[in-house]
Amino acid sequence: MNLLIVEDEVRLRNALANNIPWDKHGIEVVGQAGNGVEALRFIDRKKPEIILLDLQMPEMDGLTLAKQLRQSDPLLKIIVLSGHDDFAYAQEALSIGVMKYLLKPAGDEEILETVLEAAEKLRSELEQRHNEDELKQRWEQHLPYLVNDFLQGWLKGKFELWEIEQRSKYLQMNMLKGAQFAVAVVDMDPLPDTETRFSRKDMSLLQFSLGSIVQEYLQSTPCWVVSDYAGYTVVVYKLSGDEAPKEALQRINVLTEKLLFTVLSCLRLTASAGISGTIGGCEDLNKLYVQAVRALQNRIMLGHDLAIPYQEVQGREPEFVLQPNLEKALEIALETGEENKAADMLSALWEGGMAKAETIEEIHEHILYFESLFVRMIQKQGWSVREVAGEDYVYFHNHRELMVKEQILIWLQRMIKAYLTYARERRKSTSHDMIKTILSLVENEIDQEMTLHAVADRLYVNSSYLSRLFKQETGKAFSTYVMERKMERAKATLQEGVRVYDAAAAVGYRDVSYFTRVFRKYWGVTPGEIRS
């Protein structure tokens, strides 16, 4: 839980923030404010859940602030800490929703216990809000994503017929028994050399725009639109039972051509589409999807801005099996550092292709496939293939040195380890640079008040991440490290004969009495004793 302390007396404010062991009880002090106006700025930025509030303050008093906060956030827990024991003050505070009214001087234990009580009460209220209406609203919000995930799995042939029927009913997809489908796969064409508005870095944005255009254009057409693992926009057309298969496919070809024209008109860039060569039922959707993807691949030979129908290849079917879902899963596992999962995805890709290769030509074809897969994933990160691969780089330009399947598999497994090792070293280097920056800030600005949240804001990261990173790299909490550096600097300054007041100012303490207490607690002696 996050706590904001609002108190105009500097000494008391510092004592409340530093003398009570908040962190041991899961409470984080996200800020301190000296008046109501300053508190509003903190609340807008830090979003505290609990506020410890004084009543008598300049610019905006505590009751005015409490009224305003309760109107904007009824869940906010406000604890008043006041020197006024007038019953009217307490009655008014409680009437506007203040949780508790404590009288100064309240003890640290009583204050901590009250804040923990507020935290527990807030947790209880949040749990009660998870009622049926909210769950229904969340279900409706997440339904499009659940449908998208289901369609992705269905297209990849992951489900049995009974699962398709059960899941589609659960997701309210209104699928009639015995329904027939056709599939089209739409993708942006490569950017022309003359294109100046977009670059390759913008392809994800263009793919998203393509999906939005397809959704809007086909909103009155019975179909589902889904993005697949490879980034394509897939249209699953739902066909009426009274339409002949050839007539249905002809209509879909015309509709898809008009769709591509709409994309060109909107983006001033071309897209192409592959269309399944047949129609089929629920159990045929994977076959129709593969047909559409293979049709789309023919744009390499036929050119761009085309709606390409699938044509059955006579003779032996090609052994190379399309597995974009496994490719994407491998990429995600590598990016998230999951070595075992990456190894499993590599094995699945291997079993689906290379393991079935029977001739030298087929083996070389699959080597090229794996080479291009790793090159794409490495270069997507902005890395050098040579640096990542190290000694194994030789196989990227001379793959004929890989003589047998076992050798090829071992090489690919080494590439997974090389990728993950290189990624870890890059992240470690980045972490070290950030920690160096923080240590430099502490040394150069030790005469200023320094909090974890303020440093996180300056580095444009969130404070939770920064806290964990700092503890991981230094072995100390940020506040502990800052306190140590301040106390060591103060001691060194005092030993040089500097006055106690100046030594306190040199390490960011404006209240000499408070500095003296902190110094004595840390070193066991007073600043004056060190100086003498």
UniProtKB/TrEMBL annotation:
The modification 4-aspartylphosphate is found at D54. Keywords: Coiled coil, Cytoplasm, DNA-binding, Phosphoprotein, Transcription, Transcription regulation, Two-component regulatory system. InterPro entries: CdaR_GGDEF, CheY-like_superfamily, Homeodomain-like_sf, HptR, HTH_AraC, HTH_AraC-typ_CS, Sig_transdc_resp-reg_receiver, Tscrpt_reg_AraC-type_HTH. The keyword Cytoplasm applies. PROSITE patterns: HTH_ARAC_FAMILY_1, HTH_ARAC_FAMILY_2, RESPONSE_REGULATORY. It holds the Pfam family HTH_18. Residues 436-532 form the HTH araC/xylS-type domain. Residues 109-136 form a coiled coil. SUPFAM superfamilies: CheY-like (SSF52172), Homeodomain-like (SSF46689). Residues 2-119 form the Response regulatory domain. CDD domains: REC_YesN-like. Gene3D superfamilies: 3.40.50.2300, Homeodomain-like. SMART domains: HTH_ARAC, REC. It is found in: Cytoplasm. This is Response regulator. It comes from Paenibacillus violae.
